[in-house]
Amino acid sequence: MALTGIQIFKLLPKTNCGECGVPTCLAFAMNLAAGKAELTRCPHVTAEASAELAEASAPPIRPLTIGTGDRAVKVGGETVLFRHEKRFENPTALAMLISDTIADSELAAKLERAKNLIYERVGLTLRPELLALKCQSGDAAKFAALVDKVARGSDFSLILMSDNPDVLAAGLKACADRRPLLYAATPENADKVAALAKEAGCPVAAKAPGIEELGNLTEKLTQAGIKDIVIDSSSRKVKDVFADQVHIRMSALVKKFRPLGFPTIVFACEMADNPMKEALVAALAVAKYGAIVVLSDFQGESLFPLLVARMNLFTDPQRPLATTEGIYEIGNPNENSPVLLTSNFSLTYFLVSGEIENSKVPSYLLVKDTEGLSVMTAWAAGKFVADAIAPFVKKSGIADKVKHRKLIIPGYIASESGGLEEELADWQVQVGPREGAHIPAYLKAWKDA
Q1: Are residues 361 and 233 in the same domain?
Q2: Mean of the pLDDT values across residues 294-319?
Q3: How far apart (Å, rounded) are the C-alpha atoms in residues 95 and 93?
C-alpha cells in the first residue's frame, strides 16, 4: 500500500542535509509520496528503512523486465485502473508466435518482416517487441534449434513456451544471455520451472485454470524465491479474458491482493480464426490491462493500428507529446532558404514539417519549446510571445545559417509581429498562414518573390 508523505518522513534520517536536491527531509518525503523523486537520492537512509519503504511503496502490479540491452521489455508497474487517474506506466508488449514446426523459409520470412515493421509517428518509434517461441513438436532438440536460429537472427526479446521443464531448459541453453520469459509454470510443474528460472535469473509465466488457482500458484512461486512473474488465467474466450483482466487488475489495485499483483499475458492468437478478428481481440487486451499480447503473426495492416492505439493509451495525459527545441533542416536548405517558426507540440511540428516537405521548398524550421503546447494554447499561456521567442531566435544559431533576416511566424500569433520586430531589430518578421495546408502555396510564393 502506498505511504503518505508523513509516513515516509518518519523513516527518513531527518538530517535536512539537502543532498537529495531539496532543502528538507519533509519536502523529500512529499516528493517520494508523489512519485517525483527516488529513494536512492537520499545518501543517509538506513538499509532497514530502505527495505521497508521499497516494500511498502512497490507498485500494486509488480514491474519486471524481459530480455537485456536496448531491446529489453519492461511490463507491469501499473498503479491505476484508468488512464485519466494518473497514467499507464509500461506499454503492452506485442509478441509474434513462432512454432518449432515452422519451415526454415517461412521462419526467415517472418523474422525479416518483424524486423522491418518499424514506424515513426509524432516523433516516436513504434515497433513490436517480442517473439514467442513454442514447442509444438515435443522434441527438445528441435525446439533448441529454433531458439538458436531466432536468437542469432534477431534482436527481439524472447518468450520460451512449453509445459515441459526439460524442453524449456534446452531452449534456455540456446539463449542463456537473453533473459527470456519462461512460459509456463503450472500447478503440475511449478517446482521444476521455478528451479530453472531461479538458476537462470529469468522471469516466469504462471498458468493455472482460474483466478483462485492462479493466486495459489503465484504464492507458491513467490515462496520459492521467484519474484518476476507474468500470469495467465488460461481463459481463451473473449468474454472470459475481459472479465479476468478486470478482476486481476481490481484485485491488485483496489483490494491490494498481492498474489494477483503481476502483469498478465493474453493469447489473442488462440481466440480468433482470422487476422482482423485477432487484431480486435488484441486491441481489447491492450485497452484492458494485458501486459503482453501474443499474435499469430505481424502484418502491417493490423499491427500499425495496434501500435498507434497503444501509443495513445500509454502516453501521459498530463504531458503533451513534445518535439525537442532547435533548428530542423527540411529538404537540404541553404543560406537563401526561408525560416519558419512553430511550437514544439509534436502534432503541430509534424503537420508543419510535412507541409514544408510537400512544398518542395527547402526550409529551416525553428521549433520553440512551449512545454508541448500548440501555437494558440502556448500563445494564450504566454509561452509563445515576443519576449520568449526573441531570445530563442538569437540563441538558436539560425543567423549563422542564412544571409537574409526574414522570420516567418504562424498566422495565429500575428499580433506578436510588432513586438518581435522590436526585440529582433535585424530581422523582418513576416506573418505566415494560419492553417498548415496553406504553407506550400505560401512558400512557393515566398521563393518566387
Answers
A1: no
A2: 93
A3: 7
Q: Is residue 321, in this structure, part of any structural domain at all?
A: no
Report DSSP state, residue 414. G
| Residue pLDDT, tens place only, 394-432 | 999 999 999 999 999 999 999 999 999 999 999 999 999
Q: Is 32 exposed, middle or buried (0-12, 13-18, 19+ CB in 10 A)?
A: buried
Q: Assign 35 a pLDDT band (cuts: 50, 70, 90).
A: low
Residues 6+ away with beta carbon under 8 Å from 159:
66, 95, 130, 131, 132, 133, 180, 181, 183, 205, 292, 294
184: preceding bond cis by omega (within 30 degrees): yes
Residues 300 and 241 in one domain: yes
Average pLDDT in the 219-227 region?
Answer: 96
Residues 90 and 224 occupy one common structural domain: yes
Q: Strands 181-185 and 93-99, how do they pair?
A: unpaired
How far apart CA 243 and CA 288 sit, in angstroms, is 10
In a domain, 320, yes or no: no
Q: Nearest Cα to 317, choosing from 121, 125, 86, 89? A: 86
- 95 lies in a domain? yes
Please tell me whether residues 149 and 29 are part of one structural domain: no
SS (H, E, C) 108-145: HHHHHHHHHCCEEECCEEECCCEEEEECCCCCHHHHHH
Pick the last residue of a domain from 284, 314, 344. Answer: 314
Counted domains in the chain = 3
Is 303 in the same domain as 395?
Answer: no
Q: Is 212 strand, coil or helix?
A: helix
Q: How many residues does the chain have?
A: 449
- Do 300 and 333 fall into the same domain? no
For residue 34, the enclosing domain spans: 5-56
Residues 61/253, Cβ–Cβ less than 8 Å: yes
State if pTM tops 0.85.
Answer: no
143 versus 11: which is more confidently predicted?
A: 143
